[in-house]
Design goal:
The chain has about 270 residues and is of the alpha/beta class. The chain has two domains: about 140 residues, Rossmann fold (3-Layer(aba) Sandwich); about 120 residues, Beta-Lactamase. The protein is about 35% helix and about 25% strand. It is built from nine helices and ten strands. It starts with 5 loop residues before the first helix and ends with a strand.
Length: about 270
């Protein structure tokens, strides 16, 4: 018997949208052993209502329905920022190539062909739910790390390969700079040094691991808006820098992949 991964997928929400009761019965029978939270909508209007009441993790959407058809439902959901990331699997007749292409064009991520085959239904649903879980985890990690980055007093900034600032955290406000205004500016504009080029070579390092830069002494200009006297014109910081690459050296050697330099991540602490 084909089974879902009940432990990992338990509680995830699926909305099935189909105007044919027999199709709802078949899919409901296949899903009854899944530990998933399954709801049903008999038409497009009801589907849109249910999605906004209780956003599902996955939608199984019939194409041909009276009133608002599956294409229109999908297009509306993808146009709404609150629902655009919900994966949608179309339910469609086997061999309907033109319909499949149209479905992908409006935002569907996969399809299940009628008549239904249990193994295919389980495989496609499981695949998309696992992908949805992975995406949700990435989003949560990004939120977590952003909270940290935005709350610490250290200067955190990322440089592109041309040494322009791609990101700066709110700690730069203590020096009189709005982070958004720094994006696109050369980091050289903020640095005071008699040997600026040499310092920039070290700061914008391409090295990782043991060869990455630590405790590099850097003098940063303080914005004229907050540097009221000459003695407050600069701030000395110690910077740790690490190069950012699209793949690891291990992938380069094992899989013969090309390696591309993406820039440098820097963390600066106030020098004591």
């Amino acid at each position: 018997m084909i089974e879902f991964d009940k432990e990992k997928l338990s509680g995830m929400k699926i909305l099935i949208v189909d105007d044919t009761p027999a199709n709802l019965d078949i899919l409901g029978h296949i899903l009854q052993r899944s530990n998933l939270n399954v709801s049903f909508a008999p038409n497009g209007e009801k589907a849109l209502e249910l999605v906004h009441q209780n956003k599902p993790d996955l939608i199984l959407l019939d194409v041909m329905m009276p009133g608002i058809d599956g294409y229109e439902v999908c297009a509306r959901l993808k146009a709404d920022t609150s629902t655009k990331d919900i994966p949608i699997i179309f339910i469609t007749a086997l061999g309907d190539t033109e319909g499949l292409v149209k479905g992908y064009n409006v935002g569907a991520i996969d399809y299940i062909a009628k008549p239904f085959h249990e193994k295919e239904v389980v495989c496609r649903i499981t695949t998309q739910l696992r992908l949805k879980q992975a995406q949700d985890e990435v989003v949560q990690r990004e939120k977590f790390y952003r909270v940290i980055v935005e709350s610490v007093p250290d200067l955190i900034f990322q440089l592109d390969p041309d040494r322009n600032i791609e990101f700066a955290n709110p700690a730069f406000r203590l020096l009189g700079y709005e982070p958004e205004e720094l994006v696109g500016r050369p980091i050289a504009d903020l640095i005071v040094s008699d040997e600026k080029e040499s310092l920039l070579d070290s700061l914008a390092t391409r090295h990782v691991g043991p060869l990455a830069v630590t405790d590099l002494a850097v003098t940063i200009k303080i914005s004229e808006e907050v540097s009221l006297v000459e003695e407050m014109a600069t701030q000395n910081i110690l910077v740790d820098s690490v190069g950012l690459w699209n793949v690891s050296d291990e992938d380069v050697f094992k899989n013969n992949m090309d390696k591309k330099f993406l820039g440098t991540l820097c963390v600066g602490k106030k020098a004591s």
